[in-house]
Amino acid sequence: MRIGILTGGGDCPGLNAVIRGAVRAIEVDRDGTAIGFHDGWRGVLEDRWEPLDVDRCRGILPRGGTILGSSRDQPYTRADGLERVKAAVDQHGLDAIVAVGGEGTMGVAKDLHRDGIPVVGVPKTIDNDISCTEMTFGFQTAVQICTDAIDRLHTTAESHDRILVVEVMGRHVGHIAVWAGLAGGATITLVPEVPFDLDDVARRITARHHRGRWATIVVVAEGARPVPGTVELAPRPFDAYGHEVLGGIGQLVASELSQRTGIETRTTILGYVQRGGSPVAFDRVLGSWFGVAAVDAVADRAFGDMVALQSAKIVRVPVAEAVGELKSVSAELLRAASLFHPPRPPADPVSEG
Ligand code: F6P
Predict the structure, then answer these.
(1) Quick one: pLDDT at residue 172?
(2) Residues 6+ apart with CB under 8 A from 291
(3) Domain boundaries in the chain?
(4) Mean pLDDT, consecutive 10-residue segments, the chain of 353 residues?
(5) Using CA positions, which residue lies closest to atom 8 of ligand 1?
(6) CA-based radius of gyration for the chain
(7) pLDDT at residue 350 in the model
(8) What is the pTM of this model?
(9) Which among 73, 111, 127, 129 is annotated as catalytic?
(10) Which CATH number fits domain 2-137+279-322: 3.40.1000.10, 3.90.660.20, 2.60.40.10, 3.40.50.450?
């Protein structure tokens, strides 16, 4: 067996665990060989790669990022993209390409499978928004980083009796925000799934502060949006791949809350810190397990499938199913988180000063 591995999209703690797991499984379990394409699909298109073996993977398990590099390049944006992918598979004598990535990479895997390329998907994202898998590796690490930050922010918020707004990642969904908000004891968590009303948030916070010296932590996912028509959002730039460049909603929330409540407010944007550094144990295990399972899928010629975590087992699902719709935070978890929000006051204490 010979497999080509690539890592695409935004990086994520645990990618190296997948590479290491897959290489180990190929070498010791299947008596095969592996190559790693550099910088996601770009390496396939440009034929940039390196041989991968157990020796090359020594020491990479606790390292964040990806030893192969990553990019958001996609074969179908080039006229000869599919031909180049076919040529790479033939030239290197590959049984399959194992594509480790998020929404974009899995979308490409689906289309390549339709076009006859043997490909197996491994889901990756700190946002945890890929359907058909209960968890993606990288998510738990990001949640832990955010929780540690929130723990630290509590003490400085308390010392100054301030509102501290913490912006976390979560482009389309609020898994990181809800988990870190719950784990860190946030006062209020704002997520893309539920448009927020800043008047309502301000009333709840003001009432809480009126009851005594209560510092407030507001966690906001970068993709969270106000109820349409309530607050003007500045237009955002787009990156080279047509994705909106997010970041900054925390500042807007902070300045609006400061005006509405009169309470001193500050913002912390955690940004790429959430994606960097060493994976927590869970992500190392899930990444390793996904890597091994992806090789099993290739051995079974389960092309067009993605490995996934369901009920504490690794299963295979058609990648086409996984890319249909993003996985939102469940209504049950959103409800649980909302129970920790301060109650809505009966009157309007904002106008009382
Ligand atoms: O990996 C997902 C994610 O972390 C999103 O939450 C974020 O919006 C995006 O990546 C930013 O990625 P980049 O700036 O690397 O394109």
Answers:
(1) 94
(2) 17, 18, 19, 20, 21, 22, 23, 24, 25, 122
(3) 2-137+279-322, 140-275
(4) 97 98 97 98 98 98 98 95 98 98 96 98 97 98 98 94 96 97 98 97 90 85 95 84 84 97 97 97 98 98 98 97 95 97 76 46
(5) 171
(6) 22
(7) 52
(8) 0.95
(9) 127
(10) 3.40.50.450
CA 49, chain centre distance (Å)? 26
Q: Model confidence over 32-66: pLDDT tens digits?
A: 999 999 999 999 999 999 999 999 999 999 999 99
Residue matched to tokens 């390793």: 288
Residue 213: the pLDDT is 65
Distance CA(302)–CA(296), nearest Å, equals: 9
Q: How many residues does the chain have?
A: 353
Instruction: Please tell me the distance from the alpha carbon of residue 131 to that of residue 326, in angstroms, as a whole number.
Output: 6
Ligand 1: residues with CB < 6 A are 10, 102, 125-127, 169-171, 222, 239, 246, 275
Cα gap 33→267, rounded to integer Å: 49
User: What one-letter code names the amino acid at 217?
Assistant: I
Is the fold of 2-137+279-322 the same as that of 140-275?
yes
The beta-strand segments (E) located in 26-79 are 33-37, 49-52
Q: How many CA atoms lie within 13 A of 44 on its CB side?
A: 38
Q: Output the pLDDT for position 348.
A: 56
Distance of CA 275 to the CA centre of its chain: 8
Task: Determine the 3-state secondary structure of 5 from DSSP.
Answer: strand
Q: Which CATH number fits domain 140-275: 3.40.50.460, 3.30.870.10, 2.40.40.20, 3.20.190.10?
A: 3.40.50.460
C-alpha distance from residue 163 to each of 159, 208, 213, 265 (Å): 11, 11, 11, 5
Spatial separation of the C-alpha atoms in residues 275 and 166, rounded to whole Å: 16
Specify the ligand 1 atom closest to the Cα of 239: 16
